Amino acid sequence: MKRHFVFLCLLGAGILGSCERNTTAGQDQAQVSEMANEQLPPVETKDPNTKYKPAFPGQTRAPGVKTNTPYEAKVVTDGLDQPWGIVQLPDGRFLINQKTGTMRIVSPDGTKSDPIKGLPEVNSAQQGGLLGLTLDPNFPSNRMVYWVFSQRTQGGNLTAVAKGRLSDDEKSIENAQVIYQAKPAHRSTLHYGGRILFDKTGNLFVSTGERSDMETRPLAQDLKTGLGKIVRITPDGKPAPGNPFEGRADALPEIWSYGHRNVQGLAFHPATGDLWETEFGPRGGDEVNLIQPGKNYGWPVITYGIEYRGDAIGDAIQQKEGMEQPIYYYDPVLSPSGTTFYSGDAIPEWKNNLFICGLSSAHIARLVIENNKVVGEERLLADENQRFRDITQGSDGALYAVTDQGRLYRIGAK
Ligand SMILES: [Ca+2]
Questions:
Q1: By the 8 A CB rule, do 133 and 87 touch?
Q2: Which architecture does CATH list for 38-413?
């Protein structure tokens, strides 16, 4: 970094005849970072669906940036059956959820296990199925896995969370049990949310959806339901201690945040520890949000999108007192599914950037974030024509992403 800066100074001195020498290390860093993230036009060139104006500069269509570090994407395997969630095992292999209801283990060389069975039946119609997954912080000793799935119940379908033990022979999940259900159940097979993460206190964040229909959509604002929420639960599925609505009679105690449409991405910022999410909007209005406890994220009262058929949603407002603005939004949409921050060293300019899987947009969005604002955007793997579903960082400093078409990619430094 230092040598790079000295070189730039010399280059600058040659052209300008002077060089500022007494800069601080912070300015050094900023200058190098600026060089690494030379600003380009926004990556989105299509017309938006609406004439809605952002609440602040940079809330959408941030300047384009381009990764300068040489990197490559390799297909590790293309033989997965609709992979939906990916997590790395302590030995470097990957445990992957397949939408139709089984898990698989994939080695970095592409070797696949047989489907792992023993999970509760999933309703894999439309957007449902076996969804996100995560490992117990004590996985090396207890082999416990937690996952989200869409469950068929008597009253309809719902987002459920289950846990079980990966058997020693890795052929099955033992003693699987459902620990949480986001109620009420509903007949729809859309908008299940479906990501799950452990926080530092050993509790689980889980995202749900508002199930898409006009009759359930308002329930995202209803604190007595589990729809359209991020909930925080214990490993036994109980409301986690310290949740924002704890002790209130008018709210479910597991709720962490509300007013969400369909959250398919959750990640912690490596430097701040904050929880971020990616959320599907309607036609326009996909969002990236920084999640704070007890806050209302607005759906369906405020949105930067419109109905698929073209008319306005609600009062066609985008901002309201008491409702949080997204850090960033997309119009037209990205269709954001899984997301992760990069914390590795292999590609230094990616440090603390957010990577978002795009489904209909068929690329991975890289967002450069400074002080909780998006200051740059890049599209990765846009030539692959894949629906990117989930992404995680490997212990080797590469990113690993799965696609609906069944591929696992490794994206790393050359
Ligand atoms: Ca929102």
A1: yes
A2: 6 Propeller (2.120)
